[in-house]
Queue: 2 jobs
Job 1
Amino acid sequence: MMNIIIFTEPSIAFDLVQYTMRGYVAGVKSLLDKYPHIVNAKITGGITAAIAAAKRNDLSLLEHICQYGTDLSITDFQGRDVMYWAKRHDNIAMQEFIETAVRVQPVLFEMLIMLPLAIEINCARAISNDSF
């Protein structure tokens, strides 16, 4: 499970969700490039940028936000997640994207966690075997 940041940097998190709600892609990209750790930040009502993108029925913006590692299983304070909004808008393409991302995301996350460890182990083995 990914970390969720709640109100740690309220003005930045608020701006991120507001930019998302307005479809201001350049603003979303700028904030996430500078502060990627706020991708799962919640503002009032438990809204995240991903939930805001799904709520406004904006698949391309949701895809963009996902590039920063957002957790699509996060719900707002009423228990609604991105899939709720995709179904509410009857957006089949968004539903398919979410289903695929939710299946792939844990695998990618584990790969990113395990890759440095695997490299370290292999380097240690190579050094101990004088393979270089």
Note: The domain at 10-128 is CATH 1.25.40.20 (Serine Threonine Protein Phosphatase 5, Tetratricopeptide repeat).
Job 2
Amino acid sequence: MLTSINIAVLTNERRLYGSIKSTMRDMETNWQVELITSPDLIRITEHHWLIVDTSSFSPADLDKALTGWQNGLIALTSFVDVHSINVLLDQYKIDHIVGVNGRNCVSEIITIIRKSQSGSVFGLSNYAETGAVVSDWTIDHAGSVDQLVQDIADKVDWDQTFSEMKESFKTLANELITNAIYNAPRNESGIAKYKETDRRIKIELAESEVAHVTLIDHPEYVGISVCDQFGGLSRIETVKHLVKCVNDTQFIDYKLGGSGAGIYVMYYTVSQFIINCDAGKKLEVIGIIEKTKRYKRHRQRVTSFSYFAVDGGKR
């Protein structure tokens, strides 16, 4: 692990840079943060991380900054249009996109760098702030999903949220849990065992197939994590489904389900969408929703996305 981390912030917004620098200085004393106002000033051999404010630069300047960059990379964006999502995720292969209008985008950046530098990427605890209440469940039978989703939702304090948020959260929890049952387990050949099974068939998982749910409830946000023992969702597959769902929502077959439906529901429900993957061994999907935003601001949010692959992993 590096004892000192050099971080370049590529932006024309000095207020944004000041916020990033002051917060990092308070939380990580060995992080050196530098303002870069032009892609020509980036020093590839010296900077361990590059934080790019995509709204500050033209497509040509962004291309100059991003093409060939091999170290840690985080894109800050206020864009919600399909083209921007396609370019950042698909063309430039960026693993970490942070929405600038989130509750605390600097905290998100710090968590991304900490997880990446430590190599300890798993656990919803990485996102648990002071005051958060943590609960855990085991997933072993499809017949118990409806009751499990209700039990999870009942653990959350919804008093200060708009009415639709609880139902959106329950839809999200249901999709993540059913994916862990029907889409995650693999046979010896690595093929999904139950992917083609109609979700009306209530299968029971073997001990080696059980998954786990973790919930954190905080006065300002709620987070859910579903973790399986198979690690079958690669970045390539994730981005394929994500790009497809933001272009065309009609492709989703909710009857069969699968990761495509889960990714669609996740992206349009949460404030932060995180995937941690140790290929062939373990997968954790995390969704975090800001509880303090009113409905209009919730719909205007830019969803943050992160994909963490253990040891480089299968991407």
Note: The domain at 5-118 is CATH 3.40.50.2300 (Rossmann fold).
